Amino acid sequence: MDYDPQELEARWRERWAEEGRYEADPDAEVVAAGGATDGDAASDAGDGDATSGSGDGDAAGDEPTFITVPYPYPSGGMHIGHARTYTVPDVYARYRRQQGDNVLFPIAWHVTGTPIIGAVERLKKGEEEQLSVLRDTYDVAEDTLQDLETPMGYARHFIEEHYKKGMKDLGLSIDWRREFTTNDDRYSKFITWQYETLRDRNLLEKGLHPVKYCTNEKQPVTTHDLLEGEEAEFQEYTLVRFGHGDTIVPMATLRPETVRGVTNAYIDPDADYVIADVDGEEWFVSAAAVEKLQLQGHDVTAKRTVAGEHLVGERVTNPITGDEVLVLPADFVDADNATGVVMSVPAHSPDDYVALEEAKADDERMREYEIDPAEVEEIEPIPILTIEGYGEIPAKTAVEEAGIESSADPALEEATKELYNSEFHSGRLNDEYGEFAGEIVEDVRGRFRDAYREEGAFGTMREFSEEVVCRCGGDVVVAEQDTWFLRYNDEAWKRKAHEVVSRMEAIPENTRGEYDHTIDWLNEWPCIRNYGLGTRLPWDQDFVIEPLSDSTIYMAYYTIAHRLDEIPTEDLDRAFFDALFYGADAVDDPDERALELRAEWLYWYPVTYRFSANDLISNHLTFYLFHHAELFDEAQWPEGIVIMGMGLLEGEKMSSSKGHVVLPGKAIDEYGADTVRFFLLNSAEPWQDYDWRAEQVASVQNQLERFWNRAQDVIDNPGPEERPEFATEDRWLLSRLQRTVAEVTEAMEGSETRTASQAAFYDFEEDLRWYRRRTDLSRPAARWTLREVLRTRLRLLAPFVPFLTNELHEQLTGTPAEDAPWPTVDEDLLDAQIETAETQVERLVDDIQGIQQSLQNAEEDVPEADPDRIRITVAADWKREVFATVADVGADQGAVMGKVMQDPDLRERGNAVNDLVGELIEFARGRDDEELAVLAEIDEASAYERATDFLGTEFDAEIVVQREGEDVEARKQAVPFRPAIELEAE
Predict the structure, then answer these.
(1) Rounded CA separation 162/665 (Å)
(2) How far apart are CA 63 and CA 74, in angstroms?
(3) Strand intervals (E) in 527-645
(4) What are the distances in angstroms from CA 337 to CA 8, 267, 468, 748?
(5) Long-range pairs of 664-668 with CB within 8 A, sequence gap ≥ 24
């Protein structure tokens, strides 16, 4: 039977759907008993038969396992990066089912906020870039575009045609009954309950706008509360949206009309900056700017922190001129002011003019940051206006007339103020300003700024005209008005969140500190927006709860989502959810339906593992911990979080807007879902970044096809039913199989999907390659062994390549691999001595081949290169005794010598023993005590003698195994596990 992944996979998808294969229902007896005692384990499960979740609602005896992953935001289509995000948890879910667990793996759709609304508006306006992404990247048909012109129509298209289809095509074992969107009425009732509860617990606070806001006290302050800056005024900065690839690098200015004169930018290389999601875009701003932007109404999600050096030497694109300008390091940049990146206009700013001249003179520093000084030298001021009394470059005139020679000159500040004032009142813009040309700056600045705001090249940010400091010592910034904040700065709440971190499993372990760090620095988080999709703030319907704030405990909603459909929306009030989550005693007259749902919730909760992205630790994942810590009892706190890395495409970052993505559907059509899955899972551990490369994916497809073909050979000739008498090589392979089972199981327990799949597939293929070379595959024992190996490996690989393994396992045994229990180690088949002895045979083959190759490379023909006889001389018994001492004492030469010299026979050998001990100590280093003990027990000569038939065939020569000092004195000295080898020609 040929391997046709498309046909095979389509058949299994249909079968899973018909069976409701992954519809997980609780243990009926446990639910009937009330979901176990509140917070206790929901089942005292036995081993089970690994058939839970088969759609029959009967999972008696199975331990519940609850796996979640961040639900997708369908503002665009699913690409191969998303495919990995959702396949990694699927592998773990499948593994736990084979271990006998009753596994729930649900998915839903996050539509809260404005990105979808923005995408719809761009579509309705006919923006070419948006249309290009829809048509060219995501293959939206022309006659379908009109269906996308409402927010939920847009979302539904990408849910159904991209995400849901892609997930089903990949074979994700999802319980589709539980899907919902965050715009659903019933879900909004759930979020309403959450936020009413948090408000009642004093964990929400309302902010004011515009106000002076103390970042230390986390509250608005008045003039009376200020230590400095009592006379400070609000200043409205223009943010010039420079670009760096797909990233916006906003630079604040009070003189937006000078944008055509920008020649370079400056940044503090040592300050902290953040790459953040701001209103659906990626921005590069100072760490200090993140909170300011949040407080000023922006939707900001910090992804990761980098030093300013990250941007030094890069070029950013001027949004007005399209020119690329170089970013230079500068100590004078105040990262705490505005966005922490400043644009330089040396023709019209004396500060910038002097700074540029100093940069040109500082070749050493430029080279320190890998900037070619010649590039800096080429930067020349660009005049954008004319002003009477100054030359073509006004800033140069001002500096030279004032005799300023360095940026430390106090006269520089005055010269700058004077020039700014003169240009504002009498400077006329040059011809390149089009409709604004010839106008005085004072008359045109506002219109110029507004025009480019409307085009999207400019934004807005508020700062104070001078530094403002609270009496408590905290910095004061501008904050928005009428905003509700989640009080993540609440110390009691922080302590609870830290307690969750201390109890949960963090994978990898080195991420644990990141959660604690985030908890420590998190302050008040603005949790509402003025408009968008999602749940309205219960007590103020003018506002919508923002995306990160309505996605903290939705995992609990999964447990009862499909059953809430049976309950009228109006019945889902505060009391209903209080009874559901807090029990009958929480309300006066509990709704029986809520108590019934409570049993199901308690059965599934807590979340066993949440799989999520590393960049979400600084927001979503820590919010998830905060909210679970506050709203649920300790028994329902998350048990573990597994972090996942980012994906590249052919070495570059994926970009939907540039069309630099691979759609899962196209990849599956070309390679098959199993190939796509296996590449994504085997190329890196979940928390590591990976790189999708078509050539390597095609190689995986070829390897799976070879696996299929070899499996067909075993299925066609499976050997005897009864276990036969094994040859040495059979025992070796079966022992190696047990080691593989142990290694794969250990890796899967730690979510190390690459290690697990590598061991089960590639590493064991090396063992099989040697076995095929080593033995006669037509033997009944060999056929039985190959069948047992295939049966076990199919079960080990089932979580990774479910289509292929289910099909082959069913052909082999009559049962799909996913319905068979996870393999366990058969201790009777483990044989460390056989494995170690066989390793010696492999080494012997390599050594003989090495000698042959050396002889073949000689300038003259050497007959021994093609020997008629190979003489293998094993080390003498006294040498074995020395090795036994090394194995017993360890790699300590002094201790070994002290012990062996107690033997008179060894003492007589003097230097020979000393030299041998040195060699054996080197051999022993890096090997553990168990391995050394096994080596000490091996009869090396017998191992080679058992392999003489194989060795004779391998080298087409007579094989003679002899013992040094007993049978013959070899011309070459033998050492334990490194026999003397002589090639002889007649």
Answers:
(1) 8
(2) 33
(3) 528-529, 536-537, 540-545, 609-613, 640-644
(4) 60, 12, 12, 48
(5) 664/78, 664/79, 664/80, 664/82, 664/83, 664/166, 664/169, 664/170, 665/162, 665/165, 665/166, 665/169, 667/80, 667/83, 667/697, 668/9, 668/169, 668/170
d(CA 57, CA 784): 37
pTM score of the predicted model:
0.71
Q: Tell me how far apart the alpha carbons of residues 725 and 604 are, in angstroms, rounded to a whole number.
A: 47
Residue found by looking up tokens 């078509």 in the block: 694
- Cβ atoms 486, 214 nearer than 8 A: no
Report the C-alpha gap between 828 and 301 in whole angstroms.
55
- Residue 396: phi and psi, rounded to 5, are -60, -45
Residue among 172, 196, 167 at smallest CA distance from 90: 172
- Residue 507 CB-density burial (10 A; 0-12 exposed, 13-18 middle, 19+ buried): buried
**Tokens in use for 276?**
């953040």
The amino acid occupying position 697 is V
Question: End-to-end alpha-carbon separation of the chain, Å?
Answer: 50
Q: Are 602 and 36 in contact (CB under 8 A)?
A: yes
| pLDDT value of residue 833 | 92
DSSP-derived letter for residue 660 is B
CA distance 118 to 90: 32
| Closest to 272 in 3D by CA, of 215, 311, 313, 327 | 311
- What is the per-residue DSSP string for 29-93? HHHHTTSSSTTS-S-------S-TTSSSS--TTPPEEEEE-PPP--SS---HHHHHHHHHHHHHH
H or E element: which one contains 241?
strand 234-244
Contacts (Cβ under 8 Å, ≥6 apart) of 27: 42, 43, 45, 59, 60, 61, 62, 64, 102, 603
Residue with tokens 């049993």: 599
* CB-count burial class (<10 Å; 0-12, 13-18, 19+) for 560: buried
d(CA 810, CA 1): 14
User: Is-contact 110 72, C-beta < 8 A?
Assistant: yes
CA angle at 94 for the pair 89 and 100, rounded to the nearest 5°: 130
Residues 6+ apart with CB under 8 A from 482: 206, 207, 208, 209
- Report the DSSP pairing between strands 264-267 and 341-344: antiparallel
Q: What is the DSSP pairing of strand 652-653 with strand 540-545?
A: unpaired
How would you classify the pairing of strands 469-470 and 505-507? Answer: unpaired
- pLDDT of 530: 66
Average pLDDT per block of 10 residues along the chain, 986 residues long: 94 96 86 52 35 39 89 91 94 97 97 85 88 90 92 95 95 97 96 97 79 67 60 84 96 95 96 96 95 90 94 96 96 93 96 95 94 95 94 94 91 92 93 93 92 93 85 75 85 97 96 95 80 90 88 97 95 97 95 96 97 91 97 97 90 75 91 96 91 92 96 94 93 96 96 95 95 94 97 98 98 97 95 92 93 90 91 91 87 82 83 86 85 88 92 92 72 84 90
Can you tell me whether residue 467 is helix, strand or coil?
Answer: coil
Please return the burial class of 475, using the count of CB atoms within 10 Å of its CB with bins 0-12, 13-18 and 19+. middle
CA 241/CA 248 separation, integer angstroms: 6
Q: For residue range 525-558, what is the model confidence (pLDDT) as tens digits?
A: 878 876 789 999 999 888 889 888 999 999 999 9
DSSP 24: -
Cα four-point dihedral sign 600, 603, 607, 608? negative
Strands of 268-314 (E only): list them: 272-278, 281-286, 300-307
Nearest Cα to 58, choosing from 32, 38, 40? 32
Amino acid at 336: D
